[in-house]
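Ticket 4471: requesting a sanity check on a complex prediction with magnesium ion. Repro inputs:
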Amino acid sequence: HAKANGRGRAEHFTEELADLIADRAQLESDLREALEQNQFTLVFQPQVAVWGGEIVAAEALLRWRHPRDGMRLPGTFIQRAEETGLIVEIGEWVIATVAETIARWGRIGIEQRLAINVSPRQLDHANFFRRLRAAMLAANAPARLLELEITETLAMHCSSEVIEAITLLRADGASIAIDDFGTGYSNLARLRDLPVDRVKLDRSLVEHIVENAEARTIAHAVVGLIHGIGCEAVAEGIETEAQAEVLRVIGCDVIQGYAIAAPMDEDAFIAWSRCEDRQQATG
Ligand code: C2E
Ligand code: MG
Ligand code: MG
Ligand code: MG
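Returned structure tokens:
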């Protein structure tokens, strides 16, 4: 009896494994198709000054208009794209699209710094920085309107070649942000030596700053540390005005999150930023 049960479980397990492998293969071929059929799109989320509220930048976030599932978030496909190396091609699409967007917005009077997220596999790729530069030149987009977001963990493991390339890019005027700060393990001395302009406090660091005094103390110390290495502090995932108020008090520079605006498609972002201009002009 027990033996039969055991075999049943093993068969069940084998079936699940087969399903999993099939799902992964399907996702990979769907991702290839998405590239060919232009199913990717970008949405934009504003980052605003904690005092005054003017837009200082927007983060470009990847979306997949999936033919069957509707709009899919990066959490459902980025990891697979990394594993298969498809992230390199997807990343190139993101870079070209952001360069074109910067130029297009420039032509209608919106001088907006755009931040893109960069994956480890992309940075490993020897041609990454050359392609990035070529895309910006081809679109006639100034480098000073480009920011690269590199996760804390990735930043800690950059090769000296990558650091050199980043240094050159910054000399052109682009800026570098450390993303998801507080989720990895940073060597603070190394952080100080990296060519970085901004550090983004991960949502987990700011989630409880309103109701929890210790969380507030930690966030305050982290902001002090970021300023101490000569960087600007950006808090992400701000969902309430109360959080924004605490961040004002502890000296954070820039905030991003649903409390200000969710990520928007291009038209909505342009409308939103114009409406903000109007508010500042009148109030
Ligand atoms: P991230 O770079 O840390 O981006 C912030 C994420 O938080 C975004 O999720 C954003 O929509 C979400 N978010 C913004 N405000 C709030 C808020 O107030 N509350 C909460 N709970 N969430 C908020 P999204 O768009 O699903 O992206 C997830 C991650 O996928 C990003 O995290 C980034 O690591 C990655 N990603 C996004 N676009 C790209 C891309 O073009 N290339 C690469 N390599 N990775 C990307
Ligand atoms: Mg990011
Ligand atoms: Mg982040
Ligand atoms: Mg994050």
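Notes from triage: Residues 180, 202-203, 236 surround magnesium ion (ligand 4) (CB under 6 Å). Leaving this open until the requester confirms.
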